[in-house]
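ok, trying the design again with the full structure, not the truncated one.
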């Protein structure tokens, strides 16, 4: 069994391996970085460490606007990928999931062909699918 942290973006459900999650914080003051890629919101100072913050919606190709009533639920998941620390703003933090290897199916056809696609697999639940995210691919610059 492996542990995963669920989250939502534009109503779609995702999960990341808990072992890759350093912490979850409120978005706070994110300083924009001129010339940064479209999916980079900017940087935050996290206890003296400068951490780049990705926009989860843009990173996953979702371009809808966040409803103002939902802004308070937004969080930044801070990942530690082999010493490289990166944050990603998400719409809503979800549940902890415990998954067995045989619960996980490969990503839908076509997705795996893209080298930069962060979705590594899917899990079926009563209420639909949960896309499992590979943090190494997600955080790759």
């Amino acid at each position: 069994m492996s542990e995963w942290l669920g989250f939502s973006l534009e109503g779609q459900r995702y999960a990341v391996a808990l072992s890759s999650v350093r912490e979850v914080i409120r978005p706070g003051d994110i300083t924009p970085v001129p010339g940064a890629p479209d999916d980079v919101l900017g940087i935050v100072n996290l206890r003296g460490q400068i951490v780049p913050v990705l926009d989860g919606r843009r990173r996953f190709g979702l371009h809808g606007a966040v409803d103002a009533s939902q802004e308070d639920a937004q969080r930044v998941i801070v990942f530690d990928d082999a010493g490289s620390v990166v944050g990603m703003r998400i719409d809503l933090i979800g549940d902890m999931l415990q998954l067995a290897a045989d619960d996980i199916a490969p990503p839908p056809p076509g997705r795996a062909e893209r080298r930069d696609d962060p979705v590594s697999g899917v899990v079926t639940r009563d209420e639909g699918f949960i896309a499992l995210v590979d943090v190494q691919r997600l955080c790759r610059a």
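Keeping the full-length input from now on. The longest helix spans residues 135-139.
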